[in-house]
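Lay summary. Proteins are chains of building blocks that fold into shapes, and those shapes determine what they do. In this project we predict the shape from the chain. Here is one chain we studied, written as its sequence of building blocks.
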Amino acid sequence: MTSISKFSPSKQSTAHLIKQSMQSCRSLTLALFDTVDHPTFCRQAHPDFSPIGWHLGHIAYTEALWLLQRCGGYSPLFPEYHRLFAQGGLPKGDRVNLPTLAEVCAYLEAVRSRVFEYLAIAPIEEQKRLWCWLLQHESQHAETITLVLEIQKRDNGWGTAEMNRGSVGCIDLCIPDLTLQMVCVPAGEFEWGNESLDALDNESPVQRGFLETYWIDRTPVTCGAYRSFMGAGGYENSRWWSEAGWRWRQECGVTQPLYWSDDPIDHNHPVCGVSGYEAQAYARFVGKRLPTEAEWEKAASWNPLTGRSRYPWGNASPNAARCNHNRLEGTTSQVDRRLEGQSYYGCYDLLGNVWEWTTSKFDGYPGFESFPYSGYSQAYFDGAHWVLKGGSWATPPWVLRSAFRNWYYPHTREVLAGFRCVCESEP
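And here is the predicted shape, written in a compact code that computers can read:
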């Protein structure tokens, strides 16, 4: 798939690549609904997330709002849907009374047909960034649809390889050496962030800074490694938890990751479905800590010889040999499998497989300018959201890059998230 950061300056070819990317993205989005029934379409699986059917309708609403109404001056399509599918129209709990899947798909198709008519006459050179933003907007909601489906599968007692595999303590396997190794990132200046065409407002402008030498896990923490924390009573011992984390742990009563697997086949897969608090507690248990966002991104995208790259392996587009993404495998995969995806410093799986928690609070970089509206990122600069990096097995390619920033409250565990650790000296 062609990266939207590499659109040609030719208006005709730019429009063609945008159309091609939007069609590919839409096919992947709709494929998520192939076997979905109406109760699943409308169900709110978790208080923090809207039903999957709402996300599908919201994709059409947002595309029509920005491209047809605000840019093209068209009259609103399906005005009866506007309050239902607008971001601030209804509380999440009231978004369950939805049209049928067929009706929402008809809404999507009507909007998309008109959008492509407009694309043929649009001042595309002036609007490229907005079209890229909308492509990524759909990609982000498609991943949210995936994780809500995962929550529903878990609640129904079936689903991916991560679910319902037994109880902690029944497996005693040797963890391969690679998953316990750390690599050294030497002290020095580096750049992070993104100013490409597809940069979201919170990724830019590019920053330059200095970090002292640190060590970072070669792979994400695996189920096999995390089992040691669980088996040693990590969930029952407050010494490993922050004050806020321990308070959360006592209130919610969790004893294992949300998508926990105890099957030997998943021993070398990354732990998935942990909150930032759980990740932080494990890191303390093993005498390490979670990385800052800058530490994570330096390990992922910096080469002192050539500078900043878009991906850990360079600037070539993601594929199945480099990272587990775009629902290629439908679940997590072994952390040490993709040699072609290594970073300059020798880290595996920095993109794809699982999102990775950092301890950095989500905020704008110096020089931040909102786009396309102030509420997109700026509303979350509240000091309460933590940054996650790297994408997951469900992340579409249009939002998969080292500079991309995700953000959630540290108590959130429904995201397809894991983590890796760092320390200041050689372990």
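What the prediction tells us: The mean pLDDT is 93.
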